[in-house]
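Fold this sequence, please.
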Amino acid sequence: MMMRFLVALTIATVGWVAQAHAHGDVGYNQGQCLMKIGPDTMSFTGYQPLKSRDQFCDDIPDAGPTIITLAAQQDELRRMNLEMRVIRDVGQKDDRENMEANTEYYSAPKKYKTGTLTFDHNFANEGKYIGIVKALSDDGSKEYVARFPFTVGPTASEQLNQAMGDAKEAITLLQSAGEAITLLASAKVCSSPISEEQKRVLYARILKPYKTPGVVTYLINQQEKVLVDLPASDRAAMCAAIGDALRSKFQ
């Protein structure tokens, strides 16, 4: 029971990382579409009023008039100057390369006391784009940047269909990776005996969905922090469960 709880907690904790990896700083978190900007977040809502009232998160289904609303979740952003820019993704290595020529939409920095920024634009062409939101304090001491690539048109639908087809495999991989993250983090927190070969096997399971070693290390470290913060009695029960799990999986 304790193991299942910890695996579920791990998957919930790293869910944002998986989404953000796919679409920059925009992704789903607990059923809500959010944009990460510095230490803060903004809710992200998009729809195309002439086509449907259905909302979307990140990719835009078709070309045409589009409305995206960003709403600050923290008061700090209401005190900062917010700038919104959308550039066409033409394969540039750096967003600043020919930025003015590639700009599709631009809203100059200003304060939004209500915390809500609305982006209303007619996308005439399908293709790949990059959204960039900047938040700058009045004295210039703080600057946060959010960057989110997205597509306009059928490409997004094709990606969604492919993602749905791969959903079962993806869930299996995430569950396996979540268990491996929990085992590796718990082995360290609980000082449980674990061989280098066992570590290698578990690490490989995490790499399958997350690919990048740096991301894997981050996820394990985050899980260690979660486990350390558990009440002593819960941590003791968890350590006993981890010991049993390690023995059963590597007999």
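Residues 184 and 200 are 10 Å apart (CA to CA). Residues 2-16+166-249 form one domain.
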